[in-house]
Amino acid sequence: MTAPKPKTSKRQIEEWIQGYSFLAPALLVIFIFFILSILFAIYLTFNNVNLIAQTYEWNDLRNFRNLLTDKQLIRALQNTAFFALVVVPAQTVIALIMAYVLANREVKGKRFFRLIYFLPTLTSSAALTLIFMFIFNQNGPINQLLMSLHFIDSPINFINDTNWTLKVIMVMNIWSTVPYFMTIYLASLVDLPHSLYEAAEIDGANAFEKLRYITIPYLRPITTYVVLTGIIGTFQMFDQAYIFSGGTGGPVNSTLTVSLLIYQYAFGQNHQMGYAAVLAILLAVIIFIVTRIAEKLNGGNGIENT
User: Fold this and answer.
1) Do residue 183 and residue 276 come from a single domain?
2) Could you tell me if residue 264 is inside a domain?
3) How confident is the model over 242-288, as pLDDT tens digits?
4) Residues 192-242: tens digit of each pLDDT
5) Domain annotation covers residue 165
6) For residue 58, which phi and psi values (nearest 5 degrees)?
7) Does residue 121 sit in the same domain as residue 261?
8) Which of 195, 214, 230, 283 gives 88 a disulfide partner, CB atoms 3.0 to 4.6 angstroms apart?
9) Does residue 137 belong to any structural domain of this protein?
């Protein structure tokens, strides 16, 4: 015989009602701005949508078939992948090294340096982009410095050269995101037991060996978070490319990213909101797959696995 299920008391029912009453506002917001938005985006993928004329025309799977012939999408995916492959490892490694140095060295004015390093994170992305456009202008400080050092004979057109524009955006992105990740690493290094370093010193370990065999394994879960956050951020990069190119993705699509391409189809001259919704879903799927792969490759519980 099976034991009878315990009856739900009146008090338990009241607690459930109270609990869900407190959750109701948040659940309502999630439902309206998240679930309904996703469902509406999926509906748009099966339509030709013109926001200006407010027209919806059912077209079955035509928007999905257009993915196979969209040359701009291929270029945008290439630029976005290249951007992520360079920026994510660079910002992760630099942030870890800076945090390790600040946490383990007695540097005068350490708090001041932490504040200075963190300032780029507090500045708006649009403002930083305009500053970098000035710095890398043909008459800007970078060209003047390179010419004064006789590294170049004439100014380099960093802003409008297909070989340089995306690389300048990469430098700017790395410079502005490293302080945030450095702060995360610093907060984690505070909890690292110093007894591990002391034991390693007794065994004759040098600074590099302590970093390799103690610090890096201990910070593995934090590194996973930093990498995943970096991947999501780089795949969603939009504002820097938009400002640098004026929304065109130029020169010659060299700064065209998937997010910028979605904007062009949704709000550009073609007003193809349905196809833009397909690209948005494709980008979400790519980010999910890439982050899952990165999570598996960087998996583990830290120092216990070494």
Assistant:
1) yes
2) yes
3) 999 988 898 999 999 999 999 999 887 667 889 999 999 999 999 99
4) 877 887 788 888 888 778 878 888 888 888 999 999 999 999 999 999 999
5) yes
6) -65, 130
7) yes
8) 230
9) yes
Domain containing 49 equals 12-63
* End-to-end CA gap in the chain: 50
What is the token pair recorded at 64? 């999905």
Q: Do 162 and 246 lie in a common domain?
A: yes
Tokens describing residue 151: 């590294």
* Residue type at position 242: Y
Residues 148 and 188 in one domain: yes
**pTM to 2 decimals?**
0.84
Phi and psi at residue 49, in whole multiples of 5°?
-120, 130
> Structurally, how many domains does the chain consist of?
2
For residues 56 and 102, membership in a common domain is answered with no
3 state SS for the chain? CCCCCCCCCHHHHHHHHHHHHHHHHHHHHHHHHHHHHHHHHHHHCCEEEECCCCEEEECCCHHHHHHHHCHHHHHHHHHHHHHHHHHHHHHHHHHHHHHHHHHHCCCCCHHHHHHHHHHHHHCCHHHHHHHHHHHCCCCCHHHHHHHHCCCCCCCCCCCCCCCCHHHHHHHHHHHHHHHHHHHHHHHHHCCCCHHHHHHHHHCCCCHHHHHHHHHHHHCHHHHHHHHHHHHHHHHCCCHHHHHHHCCCCCCCCCCCCHHHHHHHHHHCCCCCHHHHHHHHHHHHHHHHHHHHHHHHHCCCCHHHHC
Position 2 in a domain? no
